[in-house]
Amino acid sequence: MNKFKADFPAYAARIDAVNARMIDFCKLAKETIYHPDLRGSHSIKDVLPALVPAYRTAYKDLPINNGRLAAVKFEAMKVADPQQAQVLRQNLLNYCKLDTLALVELHQAMLRML
């Protein structure tokens, strides 16, 4: 976050305000969730199917199905031809959409556990 603030100093206060509201899901999961299907992992890809079984295979068929691959494909867009870049963009959007939906579903599941 400090590099981001250094790159955009005019927005430093706003960046701090947003950052203050951020929650690290993995840390929260480690502190609050135990489920035998997690096998010691608290990544979203493991917690989601354990708490929301309907999403057990949600990422399986996506061309981009994990964060490392998403980062690689994002970089590949820089050198891709326009048609390839559009396909990569759509695949990244689909992956990000599922990750966002997963967090919403996990939030709901955790609220039900209270």
Reconstruct the topology from this structure.
Layout: H1 2-7, H2 12-20, H3 25-32, H4 44-51, H5 67-76, H6 82-113
Helix pairs in contact: 4-6, 5-6
Describe this structure in words.
This protein has six helices and no strands. By secondary structure, the protein is an all-alpha fold. It has one domain. Helix 4 packs across helix 6 and helix 5 runs antiparallel to helix 6. The longest helix is centred in the last third of the chain and has 32 residues. The protein is flat. The mean pLDDT is 92.
Our count of helices gives 6
Main β-sheet: number of strands, strand sense, barrel status? none
Name the structural class: mainly alpha
Helicity range of the residues?
A: 55-70%
Please, what is the average pLDDT? Answer: 92
Number of strands: 0
N-to-C SSE string, H for helix and E for strand: HHHHHH
User: Any idea what the shape is?
Assistant: flat
Q: Specify Rg, calculated over alpha carbons.
A: 17 Å
Uncertain spans: none
The tally of structural domains comes to 1
Residue share in β-strands: under 5%
Ends distance? 32 Å
Summarize the entry for a quick read.
Helices cover 64% and strands 0% of the residues.
Feature tags:
flat; 64% helix; mainly alpha; 114 residues; 0% strand; DUF2779; DUF2779 domain-containing protein
